Amino acid sequence: MTGNNGLGLLTIGRLAVTEDPAVSAAQVPFTRWGDGIVGTTPDAQFQLRVNQAVVSRAGGLVFTVGLDGDVLSAFGIGGVATPPAHRRHGYAGLLVRYLAAAALGLRQVDTVMLFSLAPLVSYYCGLGARVVRRSTLIQQPGGMVPLPSNVKLLAWQGTELSRGLWRRDGGAIEVRSLPW
Questions:
Q1: Is 136 helix (H, G, I), strand (E, B) or coil?
Q2: 27-29 and 44-50 beta bridge pairing
Q3: Which CATH architecture has domain 10-176?
Q4: Which one-letter DSSP state was computed for residue 147?
């Protein structure tokens, strides 16, 4: 695999996952999350192609998470999108499952995370993510703020250290990145 984050390219028959090198990070308003919430564009953009056509895309971001005095490394998946003509074929799910498995397989991250609006939580849980039930703080330009109530943090278990994400005791989880 290639690319600046190591996830680069996968080719299986007529399917290919490629990294788009033309992505640059920027702060953007997350209006669907609530007033005043600012996010960031991902470090890298991944595309699932079928016969050279882009059928789904998702962004990726490497960051850290504070958890009970420990620091976890995480890979965030976000901005999952599939053009209307390619929906209902499982392309987004295939891409998300691939990115999660590839990131965890590199053993350079403790967990893979994504934020989801409430209506999509069951979809991502069907792909192997679990809802993090502990209170969550997210980084914003003015400091850490609580995750808006209409947004859920989901994660895939990686290392033993990441198991603490699902314990109900302990302090808040600190996502040390603007949301993606």
A1: strand
A2: unpaired
A3: 3-Layer(aba) Sandwich (3.40)
A4: P
